[in-house]
């Protein structure tokens, strides 16, 4: 067998992935914290104030990475859902569903920070701007996927149904953006652009990109943690899962169940 | 026993669905009543000035019909799922997408078409401008099948659930956004004496794509939720 | 230092958006831990139930 496909199959098996994820997750979190701290220092202390927006523009260092992540997480979810539906790979089902909550969190952050930025700049918390409206629809799509996933009893069937919805949503998303853009020009709404004429100083750019890297790492950290839980849930009866369950320290909830059996 | 040709199966399915609707023809009025009540609420909330109502008329009618269609969506597969005939449909040797397309067409014919017929009446209640009326009807004729097709995918995903009403709305409404924007946008453009052909053409193009793709997607979704 | 906190008069907006960012992401990272505890407790319970059923009762 080809070496590449061999590793691919090996990685796709839940016990191997679980072991790998346990090692990788702390690294993701740690690197994200370090890089995020450097980016924050660069963005909040080193970068000069904007000549038009003063210090309010510093929201950009979290707003734009969060907006990028909201799209990245959705695409990641859709790609995994596609793999799960076509090749029926268990790991992809779990990965797709594990990325949904974090994606929704980043979308929520984007909306809130955008509105906190809009208040001093536009004088209003919310404007029916094309990008804001698309982001709101994106949040609803995330909530729909999460809602459907939790409404179905069988975990694997739930993952497949919600993954299918994610795929429908990924077709819909460009159409939403296009239609909202068209609607916005029809109503001649505020065409305010947060980034000036796209000439961004290097002192502002590197903290932004570093923060984007940090949020990606954070996303993968939570993704790995959630995926481990999801695999454990699905493979509960298998040997590798049983050994993990028996090795774990019984917490408060676990102790209660144990006592009831003694 | 021979399975019969696909054409015969489709015809039988259409006849069966129409018969079922005809036996419960009282229910067919419910979406119209709902739309009428929703439209009647707006003058009560905003005041009876004809100028104000004329400006929002097309959008309100569009939203009212969209919500009425959303409420009616639940009946698409509900009774078939409960009596087991939906699983027979999935197991049949004929292409499932085609059979589902027939079901969706019948559902559109019996729920959305009456709403479109009632739309001019709703327009009168809100003092809809005369030049907007044909545009509104054209937009509704293009948009409601699109809504039915998109909605059918989401209904297929939630078919096994006991109480899916609120969840169905959460799944469907984000997908309805572009249809609403183009449909109501065409009406508003017509109201402001702007060219309105482009959004209608976009709706038509989307409808053609959806006619091909949505039944296939609906069949795939149904296979997932009945597996 | 107070200059830094004031953010040129935009302090409220800047710091509250950073607070939202950190709080939401912290919750997002803590949620899987709670979930893991829950999953493990449930699986442990199931395992013990099965074991007590297979072992002969004295």
> In the CATH hierarchy, what is the class of chain A?
Mainly Alpha
Low-confidence stretches of chain A: 188-192, 252-262
The multimeric state of the shown protein is: heterotrimer
- What is the radius of gyration of chain A? 22 Å
Distance between the termini of chain B: 26 Å
Question: Radius of gyration of chain B, Cα only, in angstroms?
Answer: 18 Å
Count the DSSP helices of chain A.
9
Low-confidence runs of chain B: none
How many individual β-strands of chain B?
0
Distance between the termini of chain A: 50 Å
Average predicted confidence as pLDDT of chain B:
89
Give an overview in words.
The complex is a heterotrimer of chains A (262), B (227) and C (58). With 262 residues, chain A is mainly α. Chain A contains nine helices and no strands. Chain A has helices at 3-12, 14-46, 60-87, 90-122, 130-151, 155-186, 202-234, 239-247, 252-259. In chain A, helix 2 packs antiparallel against helix 7, helix 3 runs antiparallel to helix 4 (90-122) and helix 4 runs antiparallel to helix 5 (130-151). By secondary structure, chain B is mainly alpha-helical. Chain B has one domain. In chain B, helix 2 runs antiparallel to helix 3 (50-73). The longest helix of chain B has 30 residues, at 96-125. The mean pLDDT of chain B is 89. Chain C is mainly α and 58 residues long. Chain C has a domain at 24-58. The longest helix of chain C has 44 residues, at 11-54. The radius of gyration of chain C is 24 Å and the shape is rod-shaped.
Quick structural overview:
The complex is a heterotrimer of chains A (262), B (227) and C (58). Chain B has 227 residues and is mainly α.
List the helices and strands and how they pair.
The complex is a heterotrimer of chains A (262), B (227) and C (58).
Chain A: H1 3-12, H2 14-46, H3 60-87, H4 90-122, H5 130-151, H6 155-186, H7 202-234, H8 239-247, H9 252-259
Helix pairs in contact in A: 2-7, 3-4, 3-6, 3-7, 4-5, 4-6, 4-7, 5-6
Chain B: H1 6-23, H2 30-46, H3 50-73, H4 78-82, H5 85-91, H6 96-125, H7 132-157, H8 165-191, H9 197-226
Helix pairs in contact in B: 1-6, 2-3, 2-6, 3-6, 3-7, 3-8, 6-7, 6-9, 7-8, 7-9, 8-9
Chain C: H1 2-6, H2 11-54
